[in-house]
Design a protein that fits this description.
single chain, alpha+beta, Phosphorylase Kinase, domain 1, 5-stranded antiparallel β-sheet, 3-stranded antiparallel β-sheet, 6 helices, binds adenosine-5'-triphosphate, binds magnesium ion
Length: about 220
């Protein structure tokens, strides 16, 4: 569908800019071709070194994640990469969960569907790692959850070596705890006491694991 799309074509198929580029963030375009709408995350408008080092790396990583996730319900269809600098995915009609609790309360069934979705991408060997940020979860116009922004995701294969496999398990747990965090904003009365306790629990060992995880995440983020 979007095969053969070039960066110079983007203004021609453009339906609107969702977000302009900033120093460290790409432009987000909505484009349309033959009636199909897509979202394009595009680093071509960022500064030379940033776009060619960070931008290319992030697009490569996110594309790798989208390829692994093909066919998972709740993940946008991957349409491709343009010139190494822009990622094209299916547009999910709906809106993000950012500040949504001020307008409406999502039912607990939404978060149950989110658990199914998270379990599905964990089975594919991917941890999202940035699910606590509400803008990365969308409420589709079909009422179902969709997860975007796979640039920070980690795959099991990158952390298979013990003891790093434990860190990967920790990233998966973080994804699950992110659901609790979001659910607490919408339907706290439906979050079980056990899950609430797990969400708030910090043992000595856990604090250590969190410190290692945070350091590792910092290093990985610096590397990108
Ligand atoms: N496939 C999609 N369908 C609909 N909207 C999308 C899609 N992908 C991204 N968006 C919208 O664009 C926003 C930014 O996308 P994304 O999080 O991937 O970019 P980002 O540069 O990583 O942003 P941030 O730094 O804020 O996390 C999302 O919060 C969402 O509102
Ligand atoms: Mg995001």
């Amino acid at each position: 569908m979007f095969n053969g799309l070039k960066l110079s074509d983007l203004p021609l198929v453009n339906c609107g800019v969702l977000r302009k580029a900033s120093n460290t963030r790409p432009t987000i375009w909505i484009v349309e071709k033959n009636g199909v709408r897509a979202v394009v995350k595009d680093f071509s408008g960022n500064r030379f070194l940033f776009r060619n080092i960070v931008g290319r790396f992030l697009i490569w990583r996110e594309a790798k994640a989208y390829r692994k996730l093909r066919g998972v319900r709740g993940v946008a269809e991957f349409f491709g990469v343009v010139d190494g600098l822009a990622l094209v995915v299916e547009e999910i009609p709906g809106r993000s969960l950012e500040n949504l609790e001020k307008e409406m309360q999502l039912p607990h069934t939404f978060f149950e569907s989110m658990e199914t979705l998270v379990a599905a991408f964990h089975r594919r060997g991917l941890a999202h790692c940035d699910l606590k940020r509400a803008p990365n979860t969308l409420l589709g116009s079909d009422g179902m959850p969709y997860v975007v922004d796979w640039a920070a995701s980690i795959s099991r294969g990158e952390l298979w070596l013990p003891p790093f496999n434990l860190v990967f398990r920790r990233f998966m747990l973080d994804d699950e705890m992110a659901i609790v965090k979001l659910a607490l904003r919408h339907c706290p009365e439906r979050v079980s006491a056990e899950r609430k306790a797990r969400y708030h629990y910090r043992s000595w060992g856990e604090k250590k694991v969190r410190a290692i995880r945070d350091r590792l995440r910092e290093l990985l983020q610096k590397a990108v």
